[in-house]
């Protein structure tokens, strides 16, 4: 069989199962779950794998799941990933009424597209013509949120790292993967459009505990030390550092106060803050983080309080593999006009795909079909073909290119890739940050 003919057969199979794929996306959208809690989503993925006759491993990094299909030979192994978690957005129309979780991140579309690839590859019998293996992964906890909850999981020994892919790397679930791909939504982009080759910032996370002295706020405030004043002063001192950040480093610092005190008539003695320090490179993040810590400590000293700063390994900057991205680009030309293929625009946000991209070749193109800002109540899918079907077809076609003819394309990409870290060096670096 010719390569392009096989691609066409896979796409026909995805079209034949279009309603099922869209239904999966809708079900996940209406049943959002936060990271490391994605039980319903994981169950839905399992049922889809079972319907395709795929054996799977589950409970990876608590809720993750992984299945594979083997080719004629195992010359190269390609993973297709979909992130299962949602974000907190209680005002969203489809937010969970109990938890406030909502898929205003578009992760439901990732999972649907990943399963769309599985459906197309398996039902078409494509693996009989390919010389490598494909791994399908539902991955947990990409959003770096609910830090106190995740810290408790860590303290209990349930996890080591607060990001899902970080945990999967540690558990060895990427040890047998040569390269990986996934897609992401492009917010505020209703048209069929794709963004390729963009990077992202990395970050260090931190929790800050300001410790003051309790006193009656009305009767004897002079006897207290106001930890809330220390936190507010710290925020202002962080603001004063912003002009020292280079534009090219893309530094972003955005603290929130998660606990402002105990009672209104007690001088706050226990105040909590969370923040990220983001940047374009590891070096820029480390330098900015020093300034932020200095600002926090200086403000706390001025008030007479004490402070405990806990550094949390965040995510590394995303470095997408150019060759793998170009294969994706050539295949998506079948569905998107050339003027709507945009290259080289970075994401200001961060993702744990960045960590994986430092170890193996990875791509995460972003696609349109969505309106509203990401993580907002207005986020919606307005083009289900663009959100679910086109990425499923394009990833499946790219897999054919990678695994065709003794998987030469895949093996060449792997051979030319220079990792930033080995797995061992990566884990060593993470240990040093934490």
Concise description?
With 434 residues, the chain is an alpha/beta fold.
Q: Provide the β-strand percentage band.
A: 15-25%
Protein structure class: alpha/beta
**What's the Cα radius of gyration?**
23 Å
CATH topology of the largest domain: Aminopeptidase
Instruction: Output mean pLDDT.
Output: 96
What is the approximate shape? elongated
Question: Domains counted in the coordinates: how many?
Answer: 2
- How many DSSP H or I helices? 12
Q: What share of residues is helical?
A: 25-40%
Q: In CATH, what is the class of the largest domain?
A: Alpha Beta
Distance between the termini: 52 Å
Question: What is the second-level CATH architecture of the largest domain?
Answer: 3-Layer(aba) Sandwich
Low-confidence stretches: none
* Largest beta-sheet characterization: 6 strands, mixed
Strand order of the largest sheet: 1-2-6-3-7-16
How many β-strand stretches? 19
CATH superfamily of the largest domain: Zn peptidases
Task: Provide key terms for this protein.
434 residues; Alpha-Beta Plaits; five-stranded antiparallel sheet; elongated; 39% helix; single chain; alpha/beta
What's the helix and strand layout?
Elements: H1 3-16, H2 18-29, H3 39-51, E1 56-60, E2 64-69, E3 77-83, E4 87-88, E5 101-102, H4 107-124, E6 133-139, H5 147-155, H6 164-171, E7 179-181, E8 184-185, E9 194-196, E10 202-211, H7 227-241, E11 252-253, E12 256-259, E13 270-279, H8 282-303, E14 306-313, H9 322-332, E15 341-343, H10 353-357, E16 362-363, E17 366-367, E18 370-371, E19 380-381, H11 384-416, H12 423-433
Helix pairs in contact: 1-4, 1-11, 2-4, 2-11, 4-11, 7-8, 9-11
């Amino acid at each position: 069989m010719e390569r392009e003919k096989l691609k066409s057969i896979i796409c026909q199979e995805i079209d034949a199962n279009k309603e099922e794929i869209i239904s999966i996306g809708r079900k996940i959208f209406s049943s959002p779950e936060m990271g490391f809690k994605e039980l319903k989503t994981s169950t839905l993925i399992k049922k889809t794998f079972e319907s395709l006759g795929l054996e799977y491993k589950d409970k990876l990094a608590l809720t993750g799941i992984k299945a594979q299909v083997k080719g004629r030979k195992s010359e190269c192994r390609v993973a297709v990933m979909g992130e299962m978690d949602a974000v907190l957005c209680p005002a969203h129309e489809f937010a969970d009424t109990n938890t406030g979780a909502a898929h205003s991140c578009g992760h439901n579309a990732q999972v649907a597209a990943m399963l769309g690839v599985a459906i197309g590859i398996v039902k078409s019998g494509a693996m009989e013509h390919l010389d490598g293996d494909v791994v399908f992964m539902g991955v947990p906890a990409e959003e770096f949120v609910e830090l106190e909850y995740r810290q408790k999981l860590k303290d209990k020994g349930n996890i080591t790292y607060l990001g899902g892919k970080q945990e999967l790397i540690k558990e060895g679930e990427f040890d047998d993967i040569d390269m990986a791909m996934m897609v992401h939504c492009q917010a505020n982009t209703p048209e069929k459009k794709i963004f390729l080759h963009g990077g992202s910032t990395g970050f260090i996370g931190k929790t800050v505990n300001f410790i003051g002295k309790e006193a009656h706020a009305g009767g004897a405030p002079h006897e207290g030390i106001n930890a809330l004043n220390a936190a507010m002063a710290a925020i202002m001192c962080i603001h004063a550092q912003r002009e020292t950040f280079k534009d090219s480093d893309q530094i972003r610092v955005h603290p929130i106060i998660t606990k402002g005190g105990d009672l209104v008539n007690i001088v706050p003695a226990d105040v909590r803050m969370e923040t990220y320090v983001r940047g374009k490179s590891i070096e820029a993040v480390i330098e900015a983080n020093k300034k932020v810590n200095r600002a926090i400590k200086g403000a706390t000293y001025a008030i007479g309080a004490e402070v405990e700063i806990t550094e949390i390994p965040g995510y590394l900057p995303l470095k997408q593999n150019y060759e793998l991205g170009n294969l994706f680009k050539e295949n998506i030309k079948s569905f998107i006009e050339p003027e709507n293929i945009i290259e080289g625009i970075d994401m200001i946000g961060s993702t744990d795909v960045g960590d994986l991209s430092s170890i193996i070749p990875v791509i995460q193109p972003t696609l349109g079909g969505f309106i509203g800002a990401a993580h907002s109540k207005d986020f919606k899918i307005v083009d289900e073909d663009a959100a679910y079907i086109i990425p499923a077809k394009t990833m499946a076609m790219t897999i054919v290119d990678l695994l065709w003819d003794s998987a030469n394309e895949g093996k060449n990409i792997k051979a030319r890739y220079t990792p930033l870290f080995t797995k061992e060096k990566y884990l060593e670096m993470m240990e040093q940050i934490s």
